[in-house]
Amino acid sequence: MGRAGPRLLLTIVAATALASSADGAVRLADIPFGVGMNGLFNEARNDGRQGEPGTWELLGGRLGAKAVELTFRIQPPRVGLAVQAGPAVLFGGLSLSGDAGGDVATGQWVDSFVAETLAPCLGDPCRFDAGIALPVHDVAAAIRRLEKHGTLTSMSAELTLVRSFGGGTWLQVLPFSFGGNGALEADAGRLGSIGSTTGTMFPYGLFPSGQATLLQAEPDLLPAGFDYGADVERRRRDIGDGSLPLATAAGQLRVRINPACEGSWVLTMHDEAGDRIFDTPLNGARAIDERIPIPTGVPWWLTLQDGGGIDFDQGRSGSGVRVGPIGTTEQAIAVDAAFNCVALRGELRVTDGSLEATDAPAPASPVSGPSGGASVGDATSPAVILVVASAALVLLLALRALARNARSR
After folding, report:
1. How many CA atoms lie within 13 A of 280 on its CB side?
2. Range of the domain at 288
3. 3-class DSSP state for residue 385?
4. Which residues have a Cβ under 8 Å from the Cβ of 9 and sit 6 or more positions away?
5. Quick one: 225 and 353 in the same domain?
6. Taking a C-beta distance cutoff of 8 angstroms, is the pair 168, 229 a contact?
7. What's the CA dihedral at 393, 396, 400, 402 to 10 degrees?
8. pLDDT tens-digit readout, 47-63
9. Nearest to 211 by CA among 241, 160, 172, 250
């Protein structure tokens, strides 16, 4: 699964037509009900590595006078970085699915977007017990809008969990995915008698909160668009947050790409779990030169991939090349890389950033990394060489630190 799709999600689900009452009106209590059938929103640049997914469980619910009231137990996917969790926000809304005839599906958002602030989820694994009330004042009007194009078949609660970490410096966006009966049908009973159901959350990685993108406007749900990152930050400050930022080292990232990549290629710097610190669509760019803070204590990798995600080597049909690992201590480092976007090869050099000239030469013509795969292989492969080189750098920096401490005594 890797890189996320559209920001607002409404992939329409086809189902059997819903019977109406004698006067032709649909009774709300009779509408088949599900969770996560169409999706609420995702981070447009979300990415991650295949791994154990998070899970959610609808424990129960009821149709109240003003809202559909639901209770969930949520176990988010494990986090790769050793960073303290802060508050989270559960966003929700309602969607309608319909049958437009001839195996053509249609759908409609309900004006029902809400959010609930959640206390930090601690422990391993951690769990949230959360309630959310989704307004129903617009349901009747939304049904009328849908029935201009088809017949109502079901309603679904759509949810996205956004977690904050490290004093608000990191975010993780986790859309609820349908699990249920495997047939993509409403499986939580009917709106008047809501039952239980379960589903999953893809293990998307963490990313710097400043990289959160704006949600595009959706007339019936978010007519003005939505800055979910700013909303999470406001709620985090309101509830209070004692989590601390990660320790980082100064990094200088210099990348040369020759020949350039045509199409939707993306360059990402990430850890093994899929947490990312740098991510940019290339759009034909041939050079990158940026200063970035690099969290210490875990190795990092540079992945050039076709736009489908950094998990190109985990079973999905895609292309890419990866170089690394990049070891880190508290010392500044300079990361120089070169990629060939046609042969899918890359080369990496990591040096002590405190000793680097501002115009350090780029690596030689890229020759490492097998075509279409990650930099892994036998004892003569670039990955093995890079592992040794990176380990040697870490050891060198550590010895220098010890020597300075000895002189200071």
Report:
1. 14
2. 248-408
3. helix
4. 38, 39, 40, 41, 42, 158, 175
5. no
6. no
7. 110
8. 998 889 999 999 999 99
9. 172
Judgement on whether residues 223 and 262 belong to the same structural domain of the protein:
no
What's the pLDDT at 407?
43
| 12-23 core/surface letters (b: 16 or more CB in 10 A; e: else) | bbbbeebeeeee
**Which one has a higher pLDDT value, 155 or 394?**
155
pTM for the full model?
Answer: 0.83
Q: How far apart are CA 30 and CA 191, in angstroms?
A: 6
Closest CA to 298 of 270, 334, 327, 273: 327
Q: How many domains does the structure of the chain reveal?
A: 2
Q: What is the CATH number of the domain that holds 371?
A: 2.60.40
Residue with tokens 């809501």: 194
Q: Please state, rounded to an integer, the average pLDDT across all residues of the chain.
A: 84
Q: Which two tokens stand for residue 345?
A: 């090869």
Does residue 177 sit in the same domain as residue 279? Answer: no
Q: Is 364 helix (H, G, I), strand (E, B) or coil?
A: coil
Q: Is 271 in contact with 298 (CB distance < 8 Å)?
A: yes
Nearest to 266 by CA among 304, 239, 236, 233: 304
164 plus 40 within the same structural domain:
yes
The β-bridge partners of 177 are 200
Domain end point (choices 204, 220, 239)? 239
Residue 21 belongs to some domain of the structure: no
Q: How many residues make up the chain in this entry?
A: 409
* Same-domain pairing of 75 and 179: yes
Domain contains 345: yes
229 plus 297 within the same structural domain: no
Confidence band for 315, pLDDT divided at 50, 70 and 90: confident
Sign of CA dihedral 320, 323, 329, 332: negative
Domain membership of residue 181 (yes or no) is: yes
Q: Cβ(255)–Cβ(339) under 8 Å?
A: yes
